Automatic annotation (TrEMBL):
Family: Belongs to the ABC transporter superfamily. Macrolide exporter (TC 3.A.1.122) family.
Keywords: ATP-binding, Nucleotide-binding, Transport
ABC transporter domain segment(s): 4-229
Spans through the membrane: none
Organism: Lysobacter defluvii IMMIB APB-9 = DSM 18482
InterPro entries the record matches: AAA+_ATPase, ABC_transporter-like_ATP-bd, ABC_transporter-like_CS, ABC_transpr_LolD-like, MacB-like_ATP-bd, P-loop_NTPase
Taxonomic lineage: Bacteria, Pseudomonadati, Pseudomonadota, Gammaproteobacteria, Lysobacterales
GO molecular function: ATP binding; ATP hydrolysis activity; transmembrane transporter activity
Protein name: ABC transporter domain-containing protein
Pfam family, any one: ABC_tran
Record keyword Cytoplasm present: no
GO-annotated cellular components: plasma membrane; transmembrane transporter complex
Keyword Signal: no
Length: 230
């Protein structure tokens, strides 16, 4: 079953007096349990597509269906509520709160739920354990390496048990060894915990960790055959 479906998806931005069309009629299906890497040159529309699938932005035209629910016509409030229940986000820069411990950072998404304080702590502990940081819960971000901070960010992304994990250049700010560890962790979350992952990356080695790679060029999904012809 397709967890993510887009139909004739378009996105246009107004830049001064002119309109710039970033996505041109994207038709896409991502089955539940898939791990997809999105690649393409800078400006090809990768992050725009990721933001639309994750409900961070709304399309100019077309449809987005996630787990049988249309999100393209939701208002800002509806989208915010939907995101908090269904999507986990991992970005290139970890976006951790510097004054909070790792555990408190992981707990942040749970503040929007009705869970008790003790249940929030327990869920955060489980998420930190999953990413291999059970012993780092009391450390603040400046006491952790870049790779460890990204693990905390991943724990925060999965603590609400989201349907979909959205990763935008998750290894872009890391050295090669830390990047490999993060990619192996994403593979584990996909293969052993059934997380559906969509990851934007410019790095072919990172894309090799996904189950399949999709290529965007000038706002259009291109086939492998079309790529070979370039």
């Amino acid at each position: 079953m397709a967890l993510v479906t887009t139909r004739n998806l378009t996105k246009t931005y107004q830049r001064g007096p002119e309109e710039v069309q970033v996505l041109h009629g994207i038709d896409l299906e991502i089955p539940e349990g898939d791990f997809v890497a999105l690649m393409g040159p800078s400006g090809s529309g990768k992050s725009t597509l990721l933001n639309l699938i994750g409900g961070l932005d709304t399309p100019t035209g077309g449809e987005i269906e996630i787990n049988g629910q249309r999100i393209d016509s939701m208002g800002a409030g509806q989208l915010a509520h939907w995101r908090s229940n269904h999507v986990g986000f991992v970005f290139q820069f970890y976006n951790l709160m510097p004054a909070l411990t790792a555990q408190k950072n992981v707990e942040l998404p749970l503040l929007l739920t009705r869970l008790s304080g003790s249940q929030r702590r327990r869920n955060a502990e489980i998420a930190l354990q999953l990413v291999g940081l059970a012993d780092r819960g009391r450390h603040r971000p400046n006491e952790l390496s870049g790779g460890q901070q990204q693990r905390v960010a991943i724990a925060r992304a999965i603590v609400s048990d989201p349907t979909l994990l959205i990763c935008d250049e998750p290894t872009g700010d890391l050295d090669r060894q830390s990047a490999e560890e993060i990619l192996a962790l994403l593979q584990t979350l996909n293969r052993e915990h059934g997380k559906t992952i969509v990851m934007v990356t410019h790095d072919p080695k990172a894309a090799d960790h996904a189950r399949r790679t999709l290529h965007l060029d000038k706002g259009v999904l291109v086939t492998d055959a079309a790529l070979a012809a370039h």
